[in-house]
Amino acid sequence: LPPAENAVPTIFGLPLKYVSLVTLAVQNATLTLIMHYSRVSSAPSQTYSAAAAVLLTELLKGSISLLVAFSRIDSYSPQYNPNSPGSNSLWNPSNLLNRFRRLGKEVFRPDCWKLSIPAILYVIQNNLQFVAVSNLEAATFQVSYQMKILTTAVFSVMLLRRKLSPTKWLALLFLAIGVGIVQIQSGASKSDASQHEMNAFKGFMAVVAACFTSGLAGVYFEMVLKNSPADLWVRNVQLSLFSLLPALVPIVFSHSSSSGSTGWFNTSLFENFGVWAWATVLIQVLGGLLTALVIKYADNILKGFATSLSIVISFLASVALFNFQMTLTFILGSTVVLVATWMYNQPDNSSVEVRGC
Ligand code: C5P
């Protein structure tokens, strides 16, 4: 029998599809908690630069994606001369050069500029996430961030001309109501770990804006992926490359500003960059890579489930770690969000798959 090309990849004997989904759920919840703690556990004047964290994340994610893209080059870019002597040896200098040239050609293919749009949007989103998580309780942020399902759906209908079933529209309405209920109690409580005055309105506005960029960037990335045969890892490299310039903008801006350290834009790039800041960056990197794996081995409907599972993990951990006060309105709002997410993810005949990344 020929090797099973469509065999489901496994890791430690478990299907990679489910491993990546569960890991994404845990990653989502952990990121929110660690990022929140990393921002609020120190005084505002001693906090690290969010802009530096975003830049570092893109550098690391881009480097890992580059390595993966390089290691897989033969699977998506044909060799120039497959019959040349020693072509099977990776470390043969001429083979290495040949692979680098093919990778360069893939990364800088003529349509690579298309990734500049989601790259800019994701950089804005990743910066806004820091503003939101610094001004809202971790669990409140997690629930409010579910609104990105709504923005993704709206952009999918507008840009990809997808049709949503009445059940899905109803689920989206429930989602908005649920997020609204959760907001009623936000701002009333302040967790034990916080040394910051949190501004719930500012946090909520940042979440709304981040949901907007998430939806638009996701749908745009999906359009690019589906309209071209390029490898996902090459697309990830392009995304990171185009992210570098916008990620540098707030850093340059902060250096030219005379007001000095104000929390978001510290004068020294890695000032106050402690262990929690590094943990935030590493978990963000993991999230970006997992997102790519989930798209490849699972699907976007399952990705929605993973996100809703992460809400529950965040709730429980927030109560245990930050002494988060769970009010009745919070439980009600969160339940409505979870039910809406479940409703939205029910398969229907028109098989509407919304997320591309
Ligand atoms: O929640 P959402 O799906 O919008 O999150 C997207 C996150 O994943 C962003 O932080 C973005 O930078 C990252 N991402 C990535 N690689 C992709 C798509 C998204 O690193 N291909």
From TrEMBL:
One of its GO terms (cellular component) is Golgi membrane. It is a multi-pass membrane protein. Signal peptide: none annotated. GO terms for molecular function: pyrimidine nucleotide-sugar transmembrane transporter activity. It is found in: Membrane. It comes from the Eukaryota. Keywords: Membrane, Transmembrane, Transmembrane helix. The chain crosses the membrane at residues 169-188, 200-221, 233-253, 273-295, 302-322. This is UDP-galactose transporter. It comes from Cerrena zonata. The lineage of its organism: Eukaryota, Fungi, Dikarya, Basidiomycota, Agaricomycotina. The chain holds residues 29 to 385 of 553 of the full protein.
